[in-house]
Design a protein that fits this description.
Helix 2 runs parallel beside helix 9 and helix 7 crosses helix 8. Helices cover 64% and strands 3% of the residues. It has 2 domains: 153 residues, no CATH class; 73 residues, no CATH class. The chain has 9 helices and 2 strands; from the N terminus they run ααααββααααα. It has a two-stranded antiparallel ribbon with strand order 1-2. The chain starts with 11 loop residues before the first helix and ends in an 18-residue tail after the last helix. The chain is mainly alpha-helical.
Length: 272
């Protein structure tokens, strides 16, 4: 199964209108990047984990390799700023060339925690949202032109298809005796070439061509009025959930816990 493939379910997040859920992921990301307080971000992270387990109905083990998309960069930034933060006064360990300071660890923790908070919610959105229903919702709720909504759906579906085709090509080449562990730069480049070329051919010639034929056979955008198998309309609970997080975002900004200035100069604490 693909790393980012829809998982069928009946949780609150599965039933939530995709457009409302899509907007909510942006609110969460803006909130995470507007705050530089690691303690607030830690609390926000705990809340997100509860949302994943309770509202999305996803066991933590189901995240599996997907978690590295969020925690990999988080760990990298934490280590980077812990060792290279330039202005810390509370020295914990002096190694001569570099110093580990309290300020550096706090700054690294704040930058690092932003990734799990925002990226995990994006992953949960993909895992709990049917791409077809997402397109219907964008067209019906946000009144987005169908061709633009369909482009977004193709983008969401292409990655899982590409990942599946990638593994199929690897398996097929392994069965035919091709060395899966090529050594040396030249052999590795050749190995990558023998994977990329058929992968691109399968994606563009196979899958995307089938999508184009399906659109033509259904007279996509041939008529001004479109009909839908499923009507999408946000429920009062969906709107309440989104409104609650918008209020939290406004309160955080108004209380001075976060600021729009935190979006600027985010990764460079150095001064001229």
């Amino acid at each position: 199964m693909s790393v980012l493939q829809y998982i069928d379910g009946n949780s609150f997040f599965h039933r939530m209108d995709p457009t409302i859920k899509f907007i909510w992921t942006f609110v969460i990301s803006f909130l995470a990047f507007a705050v530089m307080n690691p303690f607030f971000l830690a609390i926000l992270f705990v809340v997100q984990m509860l949302i994943i387990r309770i509202l999305a109905g996803l066991p933590f083990r189901s995240l599996g390799k997907r978690a590295w998309i969020a925690f990999g960069p988080a760990l990298m930034f934490f280590v980077f700023y812990t060792f290279l933060y330039p202005e810390g006064k509370g020295v914990l360990l002096d190694l001569g060339i570099v110093k580990i300071t309290v300020e550096g660890m706090m700054y690294g923790a704040a930058i690092g925690l932003r990734f799990p908070v925002s990226v995990l919610m994006a992953i949960v959105f993909v895992l709990t949202t049917d791409s077809r229903k997402f397109v219907y919702s964008l067209i019906q709720v946000l009144k987005i032109p169908p061709k633009y909504a369909y482009v977004l759906m193709v983008a969401l579906r292409t990655f899982p298809l590409a990942e599946e085709e990638f593994h199929n090509i690897i398996d097929a080449q392994t069965i035919r005796g091709m060395d899966a562990h090529a050594k040396g730069i030249k052999k590795r480049i050749e190995r990558i070439r023998l994977i990329i070329i058929p992968l691109m051919a399968r994606i563009f010639k196979g899958n995307l061509e089938q999508m184009a034929m399906a659109m033509d056979s259904r007279a996509f955008e041939a008529y001004d009025r479109m009909t839908f198998i499923e009507e999408c309309k946000p429920s009062k609970w969906d709107i309440t959930f989104l409104a609650l997080w918008v209020v939290i975002f406004v309160v955080v900004i108004a209380a001075g816990i976060g600021s729009f200035g935190a979006f600027m100069n985010t990764y460079t604490p150095w001064k001229d």
